């Protein structure tokens, strides 16, 4: 009886210490599993966030590029310098310009876009001034406060144009706020009540934009650029160009490059650009302890001769010394500049 009571008296110190050791080991394992699980959760969540940001950024760019060139798709105005207002001149009027001189301050190794289009009621070819005194063939195309561009019958060299505004329409006469008199054979382009001239650039790891149409906004000031998508670390863009021989333009994109036609040229080079190939690179917000990216992500425009004759514009992320410790997602597409495509083949080009 005494022996049985002794054996059933409870745990000894050794048993308790062993149990504590097993429990501590179990807690340690559980904490390690929880830590790894939370790390994977953060990586997954941040990856989803970066994907959402990339999709929104690409959608914003696609929407504007598809509309670009509306109301200005004509060789009379393409490539001309356009003064929007005192102190603000677009260096080359075009549907979309890659790395425009009007945009500065973007992150290193990234491209910029300057997109232009109108919302007028007129035809893309504008309306002809048929007589002195601002008499137009189709004055019903214009209403008070429409923004317009008066293009001379003979394209000037250099081609410098000024944005005007309609003050009133009386019969066949369209008067301008500036009081300028148009000349017979001029063409008046109606770009609507609220045309769009917007710049896109990657700044401080975000996709930003600035509205050049806003007289109260100075787009040369970094603080006036507003963010539209976070954690966008690279924007790359290339023109889709028809390289057929002069006079044999066929409207088919032959190659992609970043060669912007010279300012004030004859517009044939602009009429040959009917697509834009672009890539957006989004970055996960999760900073990893080890290198998880060993090379910059590829895209179609990152290698030369794709297709033949195309130049390379690879993605470069080395502006950030810790770029390898993040994960990236590339969103790329080819956007048709449909308003240029609808111009068809320009015989003189």
What would you say about this model in short?
By secondary structure, this protein is an alpha+beta fold.
List keywords for this structure.
alpha+beta, 17 strands, 349 residues, 20% helix, 8-stranded mixed β-sheet
Q: What's the helix-strand series?
A: HHEEEEEEEEEEEEEEEHEEH
Distance between the termini: 115 Å
Number of helices: 4
The oligomeric state is: single chain
The dominant shape is elongated
What's the average pLDDT?
90
Task: Give the low-pLDDT segments.
Answer: none
Helix content: 10-25%
* Secondary structure: number of strands: 17
Judged by helices, strands and strand pairing, the structural class is alpha+beta
Cα Rg: 30 Å
Give a written overview of the molecule.
With 349 residues, the protein is an alpha+beta fold. It has a domain at 49-118 and 195-341. Helices cover 20% and strands 29% of the residues. Strands 1, 2, 5, 6, 7, 8, 9 and 10 form an eight-stranded mixed β-sheet that branches. The chain has a five-stranded antiparallel β-sheet with strand order 3-4-11-12-13. Strands 15-14-16-17 form a four-stranded antiparallel β-sheet. Strand 5 (127-131) and strand 6 form a beta hairpin. The protein starts with a helix and ends in an 8-residue tail after the last helix. The mean pLDDT is 90.
Per-chain topology:
Layout: H1 2-7, H2 13-67, E1 81-85, E2 88-90, E3 96-98, E4 113-117, E5 127-131, E6 135-136, E7 147-151, E8 160-170, E9 173-176, E10 187-192, E11 196-203, E12 206-211, E13 226-229, E14 232-241, E15 255-257, H3 268-271, E16 273-283, E17 328-336, H4 338-341
Parallel strand pairs: 1-8
Antiparallel strand pairs: 1-2, 3-4, 4-11, 5-6, 5-10, 7-8, 7-10, 8-9, 11-12, 12-13, 14-15, 14-16, 16-17
């Amino acid at each position: 009886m005494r022996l049985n009571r002794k054996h059933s008296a409870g745990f000894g110190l050794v048993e308790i210490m062993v149990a504590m050791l097993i429990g501590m080991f179990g807690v340690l394992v559980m904490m390690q599993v929880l830590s790894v699980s939370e790390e994977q959760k953060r990586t997954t969540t941040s990856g989803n966030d970066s994907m959402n940001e990339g999709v929104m950024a690409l959608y914003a760019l696609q929407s504007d590029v598809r509309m670009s060139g509306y109301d200005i798709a004509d060789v009379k105005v393409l490539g001309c310098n356009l003064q929007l207002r005192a102190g603000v001149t677009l260096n080359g009027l075009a549907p979309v310009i890659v790395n425009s001189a009007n945009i500065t301050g973007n992150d290193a190794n990234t491209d910029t876009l300057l997109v232009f289009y109108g919302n007028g009621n007129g035809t893309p070819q504008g309306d002809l001034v048929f007589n002195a005194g601002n008499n137009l063939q189709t004055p019903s195309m214009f209403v008070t406060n429409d923004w317009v561009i008066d293009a001379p019958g003979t394209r000037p060299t250099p081609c410098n144009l000024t944005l005007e505004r309609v003050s009133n329409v009386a019969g066949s006469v369209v008067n301008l706020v500036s009081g300028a008199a148009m000349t017979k054979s001029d063409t008046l382009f109606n770009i609507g009540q609220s045309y769009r001239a917007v710049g896109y650039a990657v700044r401080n790891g975000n996709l930003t934009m600035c509205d050049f149409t806003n007289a109260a906004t100075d787009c040369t000031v970094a603080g006036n650029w507003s963010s539209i998508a976070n954690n966008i670390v690279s924007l790359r863009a290339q023109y889709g160009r028809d390289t057929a021989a002069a006079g044999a333009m066929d409207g088919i994109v032959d190659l992609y490059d970043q060669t912007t036609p010279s300012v004030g040229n004859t517009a044939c080079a602009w009429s040959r650009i009917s697509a834009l190939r672009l890539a957006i690179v989004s970055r996960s917000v999760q900073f990893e302890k080890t290198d998880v990216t060993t090379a910059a992500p590829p895209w179609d425009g990152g290698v030369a001769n794709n297709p033949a004759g195309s130049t390379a514009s690879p993605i470069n992320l080395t502006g950030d010394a810790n770029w390898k410790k993040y994960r990236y997602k590339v969103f790329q597409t080819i956007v048709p500049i449909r308003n240029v495509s609808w111009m068809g083949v320009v015989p003189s080009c």
